[in-house]
Specification:
- By secondary structure, this protein is of the alpha+beta class.
- Helix content is 14%, strand content 27%.
- The protein contains six helices and 14 strands.
- A six-stranded mixed beta sheet has the order 2-4-3-6-1-5. A four-stranded mixed beta sheet has the order 9-10-7-12. A two-stranded antiparallel ribbon has the order 8-11.
- The C terminus is likely disordered.
Length: 279
Amino acid sequence: MFGFPFNELNFIRNFSVNLRCYSVMMMPGQEREDVDVGGKIILPPSALDVLSRLNIQYPMLFRLRNSHAERETHCGVLEFIAEEGRCYLPHWMMRNLLLDEGDVVSVENVPLPVATYTKFQPQSVDFLDISNPKVVLEKALRNFACLTAGDMIAIRYNDKSYEMCVLETKPEKAVSIIECDMNVEFDAPVGYKEPTRRREAPEEEEDFDYTKVSKPRFAVGMTADDDGCPGISGHGHEAGRQETGRWRGRRRRHPQRGAQLRLPRGQHHLHPQRQEEGG
């Protein structure tokens, strides 16, 4: 179940094996934090021996499947130093697959297309505190070999872990991110609320009391124009005689508008044609 007999290698066309999985914390020796925050696993040396004899596509990418829970994800391989019959997975990967310590997981070598687009959703609004999230994500994804839509991955920044849900990947549901030019988009974090804008109340216009406006005073014989300004009635000498008080010489209207010019006393308002005739 957990080995690769030499006499069976001739019948193997694809790498597929069932191994008991454990979290990275269960590995003997020093703690490997770099494995726990990435997307690569540790396999036994016998797996490398079989893979080297097969005509597989590089880089080595694998599909992990929990047949009991019908859950699967994809990963790369970091080292071949696990005990025979065992493999070590990051904690977030075991949680996605609904695996406990010592459960059996199926490991199969698969080719994946290169990623062109990925959309992430942070699981906490604390992710907004990062000044340049794309740079941080790009650095964190160097520890990953592939991504699967629906996975909940974990990245570390400034000694703090941030969970990210992979909402969408293109061109397929599972993609390779090794040496790729990938467009990245972020969705609003879980729990984020758009700030509400307060609408300023329109300023109320003050009621204007038109009864308190003083009306212009007119001298005797004067009339008001349409714009409320006084005009002069009469013609020639009569107009000059009516021009009295504060309005004397104050207002002149252009002759083209049909109004009369105020002429000095003793001069008559003549039509241009009549002036030529008189000349």
